[in-house]
Amino acid sequence: MLDKGVLEEVLELALANGGDFADIFIERKKATGIGCEGGKIERVQSGLDVGAGIRVLNGESTAYAYTNDLTREGLAGAAKIVSHAAPGGKKSCNIDLRKIKPLVEFEFRERPDTVKTELKVELVEAADRAARAVDPGRVKQVIVGYADVIQSVIIANSAGDYVEDERIRTRAMVHAVASGGGGMQTGYEAVGSLSGFELLKNNPPEELARAAARRAVQMLEARPAPAGRMPVVMAGEAGGTMVHEACGHGLEADLVQKGLSVYAGKEGGRVAAESVTVVDDATMRDRYGSYAFDDEGVPSRKVVLIEKGVLKDFLYDRLSAMRAGRDSNGHGRRESFQDKPIPRMGNTYIAPGREDPEKIIKEAGRGLLVKKMGGGQVNTTTGDFVFDVAEGYMIENGEIGPMVRGATLTGNGPEVLGNIEMVGSDIGFTIGTCGKDGQGVPVSDAQPTIWINNIIVGGTSHGGDNPKIRRI
């Protein structure tokens, strides 16, 4: 995209007035999106976004500017703007960029830009038909979405690192609404990966659609969830919403350093049950939150955050790592060239244990089985959270009982991690777009089947140990 000599000149200009570090992030991103609603294709759109962001770090301060002008003059203009934020005196430097290699390489077997738009539309329409066919009388609304992104980046910095990378992500989602008996329920399924169009050949959208529609229909027959304190078993297929929200954000180094994390000052201490190990690994194959390099040009790697209940590490970008007097561990991410990088998760999960998932349900004896999580929110400073349960069942006498609706889970992240009694040998992943500081980035999260000994379940009827608890 640009000659190395030009990049070296731009970086030297950015540091001309001082500063500790400078980098440039150049992006060319082509995106395609298809949406179907009401049985009709509502949108087929594609776009190309090209630009560059230039940053200077000077002590605790950051100066950032971006431009769509990738000429030598355009980049130099942005570099001169950020250079004024570091009034440390005139500084001369001689930057010699050297290309660095990733620790892992990803294969894209079928590039989405080689697939005809008509075929993508056909898959979306097929998913819509499949969802409606589950129960034509009660499935009232179906929304199907498809998207692919091809992002080519060049990253260079004043330390002499030079990176070229291409990321291809593909995803599909289905949202179904069912109505009957005076009520309305929803079902949602999504699949996404750092991969090409082969993703949808291995995960047909029709299957997603049927699963979403079945859940919506089944929830119409579900009985109201009980409320109170009780054991909760979270199935592996529920995905890692809990670990992502209630734990992962609190392990991002910038929040820790600002005192906005419940985990601040606890490194080396016990923060979870001994059976719990939490990992973020952006090197995983076929996961939505994977990448070969982060958005600062640091190779991705596996980071063990909590090991056997003990807090071991945080997620660092370059700035938070400089503050801590250490190197980044590859978690500086940004939504686009218009945004500065910040510490973010990639693929975050609780590592599998040794227990048979069916045995865990039997051992729990009673309580709530969560098979699908909904949305939620968390206060990273305290660790307190509230999550919706999209699909849940009662556990009665160690067996899976009737389906329930309207359940929520309320608790505190560290307390819940400390109350995990058993960890299963399975693991299940979910995908999402994680929001932070106005930026969204693709992530995956996962967990095995886990038994939480005691947690507050909000519902619409009494059923736990505390009759004062009501639906949240």
Automatic annotation (TrEMBL):
Domain Metalloprotease TldD/E N-terminal intervals: 22-84
Keywords: Hydrolase, Metalloprotease, Protease
Every Metalloprotease TldD/E C-terminal domain range: 228-459
Stretches with biased composition (Basic and acidic residues): 326-342
Domain Metalloprotease TldD/E central: 111-220
First and last residue of the signal peptide: none
GO biological process per UniProt: proteolysis
A GO CC term attached to the entry: cytosol
Pfam families per UniProt: PmbA_TldD_1st (PF01523), PmbA_TldD_2nd (PF19290), PmbA_TldD_3rd (PF19289)
Disordered: annotated segments: 326-348
GO molecular function: metallopeptidase activity
SUPFAM superfamilies in UniProt: Putative modulator of DNA gyrase, PmbA/TldD (SSF111283)
Protein family: Belongs to the peptidase U62 family.
Listed name of the protein: TldD protein
Protein's organism: Desulfocucumis palustris
Lineage: Bacteria, Bacillati, Bacillota, Clostridia, Eubacteriales
